[in-house]
Predict the 3D structure of the following.
Amino acid sequence: MTAPPVGSNAGLREKHAMTFERSGLPPSSLPHEEEEDEESLQDLLSQCATNLTQKAAAGELLAAYEREQEVEQILTSLASPLKGRILITGGPRVGKTAIIHEVAARIQAGQCPDALRGAELWGLSARSILRAFGVQGWQEKLGRLLEQWTARPDVILYVDALPTTLAAGATAEDPFDMAQFLLGQLQSSTNRILAEGRTQAVNSFLEAYPEYKHVLMEVRIPEPTIEKAREMIRRAAHDLEASQGVTIERGAVEVALDLTRHFALSEHLPGKAIDLIAEGIALRSERGSRAALRVSAEDIITRFEEKTGLPRILLTDQEPYNEQAVRRYFSDRVLGQDQAVDVIVQTLSLLRTRLNNPNRPMGVFLFIGPTGVGKTELAHALAQFLFGSEKHLVRFNMADYTMDWHVQTLFGNPHGFDIESRRGQFTMRLQEHAFAVVLLDEFEKAHPEIFQRFLQLFDEGMLLNGASELVNLRNSIFILTSNFGARLLNVGRLGFGPTVSPEEQENRIREEMVQFFTPEFINRIDSVCLFKPLTKSVLREIAYRRVQEILQREGLIRRRLEIEVDEDVIEWVVEHGYSERYGARYLARQIEKTITYPLAQQLINNNPPPGSMLRLFMRNERVASALVLPTTTHVVAEKDLATGPAEIGHLPERLTASYIQAGLPALRRRVETLEASHRIAEARTRQADLLRAMSTPSFWDEPGAIQPRLDELGQLSSQVELVDGLRRNLDELEHFVREMEQGNRPDLLSEAALRYRYLVYELPRAELTLLFNDPRDTCGAYLHIAARGRRLVASRWATDLARMYLGWAARREFPAVIVAEELNQKGTTRGCWLGIGGYGAYGLLRGETGLHRLVQEAEGQEGRRQVVQASVTVWPDLPDSELDGEAQRQVRLRTQAISRSGVLSGRLITQVEASSGEDSLPTLRLMSALPADDLMTEARRLVELQAIFKDHRSPEGSDRQLVRSYVRFKKRYVEDHRTGLKTSRLKATLKGDLDPFLEAYLKQESETREAGQPDLEEALA
């Protein structure tokens, strides 16, 4: 027997019965009168709802502050027989629930219209209904509840999250949901109902169920003003103090308001700030005792930092901000892209000072450049720095959105079947990231309509998706990448020259961008960053880093192996591992193949014990590996270490504390000897005097004295720097040794060993300067390298020698410049001039003056020997005090602008012919990449040096003496004909490994001098 219809619910029951009939359920599934009598309304409500008036009496509900107007409006409307169905809408955390709790408290206390006195407010939701009544049987019990509710006007139902609740209940077998179930009851009854929901969700719900617009009256809860919000948060904090037994400092309230207002953009005040304070209390409770618990501004900042991942430099002015340190962070992550790094650093500075536009995204950048040069890496680095994790990088490959229908795929289809399709991929990917770096790869490949959708997003930082949801993306940075600018650069259409500024480059790129994007779109881009192709030095640094990453892998760390990778392996990888098409990514793959496989072979074939060393080196243009098994370490007495530089240079693979302690006195004596020989204390005093003099206005009153003093200061600085690094490492080494002796600190052994090795390897290089015997030895050096003969092979040999000396300067970290080249009509090198600075460059190199001979197999003539020669002349870069200024002014110069391809310098732009007027001295014809003024200054100095040393063409004897042979015919070796030193390291020598030859020559010269024999220069004279 089915129960008769009650009141206006007959239509609803009829419709429900029809639903059962359609779904094939038996009539017995309909509610029965006997079952209905079994449970009262009170019983049914107790199962699925919460009595809020009862909770109000117990003081368990939230209080609403500064919302008197809204509360009164709701109470008045509820009391009206025509407006008794209220829908409260507002943004998330704006305070809707607190207002409803306040309404319940007023009703319970009788502070309400007469019609509501004695009423009860019961709250229910989809979750509570389905949990109490079941997913399959909710219709029966909810129908019975609504029937009984019609007879109880004193019961007010409160529906939490109305859109979610009423859209629930449908199943595959029965699509009838709660919204349809409740509609008939509301249309025909006068029972009071109170509901709340987020504005966007309510709007979507009302579009799907427009009938509800006529039965519910909307009351909108706006976000309060800053002043009102501050008062709400202050009073809520006072409640938290009472309930939690804590003290909340006033600064904590202000910081919570400030941080959430600027960064928590997806939620509203005051709730988001109150939540943050509550989280600060929890954080403080975890770190300290409950007694006398105080929550400070620092606790709030710490919690917000943990929650969002934002760096402290953006959260508080109390955190120091070092722009140079930030620049170094990005420059270390992305090598060789200074312009792009500068743009990112400038943006971060704006965010730090909050001078960015708060109504736009944090930044919109277009990265242009070839593949594999750092565009994606910079985006990863930015996500890591700004949001604490690279997981905050959200990448879209825009080449996947080339069709017109992809617009709805990305931004949502308003007619989509499910919420995911209505929201679109963009919203779904970003909904978990309130803070994100959004990387739009190959942006120009997307459909033009997508450009227009991003136009609004880049302009306002807001996106309206297909579900009519407004997505706030003002806490995001958008990075668009493109290769089109790089293609234009490669074909030379942009006309970039060496003097074009980054601003001019960006303007030209913007002109070319018009064919891809509209001017309106381009104007939304904050900056266009041009990523240059990677240079060899940058690639070398990348290679080093990738190799270090490989050496930190678990398979090597777990086995406790030491890995040594020769410099030649890095050079080979750089030469063979760069692809213009794939950039540094190809280099990374090449390193993986080159490094990991030989290591894997050794591990598999030999299973080396812990402490073994694996060495990778080049053999026949292939990477080879060798295994060095660990040796037993023994204690070495001090007397064994004090015998000299040669012995101390042979270090064991592992340094023990006793070994370091025994060798320390010898290292100390050597550093002190260097300091005494070079009079470092006097040099520091004179350096300080000059710096003090420079800071006085009178220093600049005598123009003629300025340059000599500046030259002296530069010489003193080089002199001091020679020993400073050694002294600093020695002091640190002695400190670590004392700490290990006094405090049993074995953890300091690695730090001590690092400095010990540095001293052992660097001291011999510095000690070469002890062999100097002429004040000019401390000067910088000019080198003139000239091909002997007009054959192309001679020109190539002169170029190889120039590169050898430039490589030596780089190893020594001496500044070096290609002063000029001497080219013939065919563009091949007749010779070149190099300038190498640094303390003692001339003293180290002066023995290189003479002939350098290459012995090799003749081209095209197998088995036939070919000898090629080039002369090297080394001059000291004398200070101005030793030069004749008047003579320099009398040098005749002819200058013209040129544009030629150099062999060493790239593009040559200036040519100078310089002569002294003396017939015995040749005219210098120099072509250079230097500006005209700089080249003329160098030319004058070179002409005078020629005049000073004209008697024997160089200050170090004859330039016709055979210095060295470089042999790659049948055997490969280098032999010095003066000292007899011979090595098979031909390739390393030609890359600049010259110190063994320079040391041997200086030692031989010193021994000759000590024996009382005339030195080479005197003999030649």
